[in-house]
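Title: Comparing notes on inverse folding

I've been comparing how different people in this forum approach sequence design from structure. To keep things fair, I'm posting one structure and asking everyone to reply with a full sequence. Here's the target:
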């Protein structure tokens, strides 16, 4: 897939289909729970999914673009393990010489402007069983700093309240919160656009953490870097905030400071429901769309772990490898929700630097709760390999760092009101290295040239499911 096509979700879907990376669900599906239920079964598989027939709607629903790093690697034309380094490089390029977006005269997102806003016309799914309603959870918010006019991009979840009202969750410390507070101080409302159905360049730009993209920079330029060309915007009708020219839908919205409405529950990236609480109200003033739009949704889980997680990894790698010589690679584990547990690989150069790596990693990404540092002979993407380092190299008396009452991520139930304890595990060999910590290794022998004879495996009665009383699992439908 070429960089010049990843700015447009319609082209991405075409390309995924052409290389066998798209599953089409052709049965009719209900937006309430069924669509997400099917997506949850297919989550993490080798294909993204297009729900072609959605009950009561003409537009299809697309999901799964980020749930497999293999698909992402294919999309970005890079080996999977090179992704954090590639993303870090794009962000570094942008920091050094930003390629600002351009405003163009027209774009696909303005093919249709609805005479009146009616969100019931959009195929917005209800995901988990206890979710408070249908949600936009994959749209990119573009807003302007009320003081400086600098643009910001972010992703927030929006619960649909009625035909033209949303309630939004803005986590503490987000730039959108800062902008809303600034608008409030000026006694003004905050206009923004919500752009639905975009490619990974813009999605990543929006998910770039504040530590890499401070509030005084236009982080839309990060998308330009991924695309290899300036991101295209078009003017809206209601304010000076632009729409993303190649989005599927763009909603022109307004928040009036102080206006709150109940939002939640929502099945979150943590595997828990986010609580229902009063959160900012959003008025949708205008709705633009393509003539044939596709609605993108993300079920909280692997897709977020691979997008927020990948951006977090890239940023930690960029910052920490500069601060602590010897840091080679970073992985945000899926068990850690892509947010809370970083595993860092390093080649130790001096005693004590593995502890420095723990401190620098926590500083580089505030939502982290756990940091595990291992030597670079450990596969940081393998939970059992990391456990091996912990089981054989961690000195529990001196290698565990606990930081109490630190700022963390409010969605994590062990951080009530964003405050909790963090823990770092130094699972590196004692430095300088001693013989007993040398990892045993075998000669790498390619099996291609080795003749191996086998017989089919025969399962004896005692090991078969029938003998243990477990019924074999029914296998309906086509395997993905
Ligand atoms: C799919 C997805 C959903 C997200 N949902 C929210 C959300 O509901 N609220 C929020 O504050 N951040 C959410 N985030 C994280 C922010 O978008 C992300 O941290 C971003 O960097 C914030 O931008 P800012 O640094 O400009 O504030 C989400 C991220 C992704 C990828
Ligand atoms: Mn920002």
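Reply #1:
Here's my take.
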């Amino acid at each position: 897939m070429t960089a010049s096509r990843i700015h447009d979700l319609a082209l991405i879907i075409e390309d995924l289909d052409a290389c066998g990376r798209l599953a089409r669900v052709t049965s009719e599906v209900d937006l309430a729970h069924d669509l997400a239920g099917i997506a949850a079964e297919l989550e993490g598989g080798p294909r993204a999914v297009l729900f072609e027939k959605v009950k009561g709607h003409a537009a299809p629903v697309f999901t799964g673009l980020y749930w497999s790093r293999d698909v992402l690697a294919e999309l970005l034309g890079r080996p999977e393990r090179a992704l954090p380094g590639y993303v870090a490089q794009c962000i570094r390029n942008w920091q050094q010489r930003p390629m600002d977006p351009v405003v163009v005269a027209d774009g696909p997102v303005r093919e249709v402007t609805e005479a009146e806003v009616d969100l019931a016309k959009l195929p917005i799914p209800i995901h988990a069983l206890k979710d408070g309603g249908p949600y936009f959870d994959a749209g990119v918010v573009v807003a302007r700093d009320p003081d400086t006019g600098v643009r910001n991009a972010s992703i927030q979840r929006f619960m649909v309240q009625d035909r033209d009202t949303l309630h939004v969750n803005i986590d503490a410390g987000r730039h959108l919160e800062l902008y809303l507070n600034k608008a409030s101080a000026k006694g003004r409302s905050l206009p923004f656009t919500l752009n639905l159905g975009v490619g990974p360049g813009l999605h990543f730009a929006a998910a770039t953490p504040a530590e890499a993209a401070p509030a005084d920079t236009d982080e839309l330029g990060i998308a330009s870097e991924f695309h290899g060309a300036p991101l295209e915007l078009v003017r809206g009708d209601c304010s000076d905030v632009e729409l993303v020219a190649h989005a599927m839908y763009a909603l022109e919205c307004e928040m009036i400071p102080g206006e709150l409405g109940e939002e939640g529950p929502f099945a979150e990236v943590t595997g828990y429901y986010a609580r229902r609480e009063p959160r900012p109200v959003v008025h949708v003033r205008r709705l633009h769309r393509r003539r044939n739009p596709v609605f993108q949704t993300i079920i909280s889980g692997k897709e977020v772990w691979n997008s927020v997680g990948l951006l977090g990894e890239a940023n930690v790698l960029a910052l920490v490898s500069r601060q602590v010589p010897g840091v080679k690679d970073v992985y945000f584990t899926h068990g850690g929700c892509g947010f809370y547990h970083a595993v860092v690989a390093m080649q130790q150069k001096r005693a004590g630097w593995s502890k420095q790596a723990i401190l620098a990693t926590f500083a580089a990404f505030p939502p982290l709760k756990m940091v595990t540092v291992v030597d670079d002979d450990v596969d940081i993407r393998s939970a059992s390999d990391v456990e091996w380092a912990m089981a054989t190299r961690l000195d529990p008396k001196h290698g565990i760092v606990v930081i109490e009452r630190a700022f963390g991520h409010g969605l994590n139930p062990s951080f009530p009101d964003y405050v909790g304890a963090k823990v770092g595990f130094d699972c590196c060999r004692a430095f300088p290295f001693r013989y007993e910590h040398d990892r045993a290794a075998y000669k790498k022998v390619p099996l291609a040239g080795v003749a191996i004879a086998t017989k089919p495996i025969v399962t004896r009665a005692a090991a078969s499911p029938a003998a243990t009383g477990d019924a074999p699992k029914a296998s309906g439908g086509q395997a993905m």
